[in-house]
Amino acid sequence: MDQLSLDVVVTRGALIESRHRVHAAVVNSAGELIGSSYDPGLVTHWRSCAKPFQVMPLLESRGFDAIGWGDDQIALACGSHGGEPEHVALADAMLSSIGMEEGDLVCGPHDPLSTRGQRVLRETGERATRLHNNCSGKHAAMLARAHTAGWSPNGYERDDHPVQRECLDEVARWTNVPAATITRAVDGCGVVVFALPLQPMAVAFARLADEARRSHEIPSRIVHAMQTRPFLVGGSDRFDSAIIEATEGRVIAKIGAEGVHSVAIIDEGIGIALKVEDGAQRAQFPAVISVLQHFGALPRDLPPRLAEFSRRPLRNTRGEIVGEVRSLVQ
Fold first, then answer.
1. Other C-beta atoms within 10 Å of 318: how many?
2. Burial of 229 per CB tally in 10 Å (0-12, 13-18, 19+)
3. Which of 327, 219, 201 is nearest to 260 (CA)?
4. CA 228 to CA 170: how far, in whole Å?
5. Phi and psi dihedrals of 265, rounded to 5?
6. How confident is residue 330, by pLDDT bands cut at 50, 70 and 90?
7. What is the signed CA dihedral for 281, 293, 52, 29, rounded to 10 degrees?
8. Angle at 248 between CA 245 and CA 251, to 5 degrees
9. Which SS3 state, helix, strand or coil, does residue 157 take?
10. What residue spans define the domains of the chain?
11. Which of 4, 15, 57, 100 has the fewest CB atoms within 10 Å, i.e. the most exposed one?
């Protein structure tokens, strides 16, 4: 098993000023641990990394196809989008197709996560809505599950609602962790969030990759949608989109808040889960790139767009470069 060095440092001048510890688990399609950093058994909330599995009940029930949704809707439901106009319009259309509207979403409004989305709001003078929430696609899919099953949408976000019970069962099935042992809490968007060790998270993404390459229907549809619609998974300047595009879909990545990330290397059936111990997103992206380089999914000489995520300049208030954020091993 490979011992990985994924720590990320922040320099100022010649000195390291800050250091972020990064825990990670890397598994193969058999669920065997083939790489780790610090504690691969660290228990943490999976956050938005669980989205590809949370949409599965809707696909498996055939409700997804019954309402005429396709790859665009899968990608947005799996993604953490940047709140750009295309994302907002698609989320709105998803709700309209099931006779619902923005007010039916329980996720609160927040400013777009992408620079372009923020600029559009500034230029139009509009305010952020629930549709701008990066999780609006996931919420629309959850409402669609309730709608197609004939369940009341009221309280669809709560732990005792059938929608959330199905999501829990799906997470348990893909991670091989019994549902009764998965700790639940409330995610930033208001729905249930799952806490479990990093290694089972990596197992789920390894299985997703392996079953997709074996052409199993539901995993294949999810992976295909994410591979072919990276903009809907993230946005014009979002990390996951950049990874998918740079690897031409050989890698799919899913960001989570507080420094959590899950990744699948599709052709090799490898799953990766990592957690920046202090939750700093500035350390998250260089760490993901480092582990992908270690396992040969990314080259040492990165394309310019990924190089910007791997090594970021640190600027002072005058715009002068005074240091950088980078992996310790660089």
1. 6
2. buried
3. 201
4. 24
5. -95, 105
6. low
7. -140
8. 85
9. coil
10. 2-66+158-327
11. 15
Q: Is 301 exposed, middle or buried (0-12, 13-18, 19+ CB in 10 A)?
A: exposed
Closest CA to 130 of 155, 104, 163: 104
Query: Domain 2-66+158-327, what fold?
Result: Beta-lactamase (3.40.710)
Q: How far is CA 199 from CA 25, 31, 192, 278, 298, in A?
A: 5, 9, 20, 19, 22
Cα–Cα distance between 11 and 315 in angstroms, integer? 11
| Residues 11-62 pLDDT 10s | 999 999 999 999 999 999 999 999 999 999 999 999 999 999 999 999 999 9
Q: What does the buried/exposed string (b/e) look like for 60-76 if buried means 16 or more CB atoms within 10 Å of the residue's CB? A: eeebbeeeebebbbbbb
- Token pair of 290 as six digits: 């480092």
CB 291 within 8 A of CB 25: no
> For the chain, first and last CA: distance in Å?
22
Q: Closest Cα partner for 312 from 278, 289, 294? A: 289
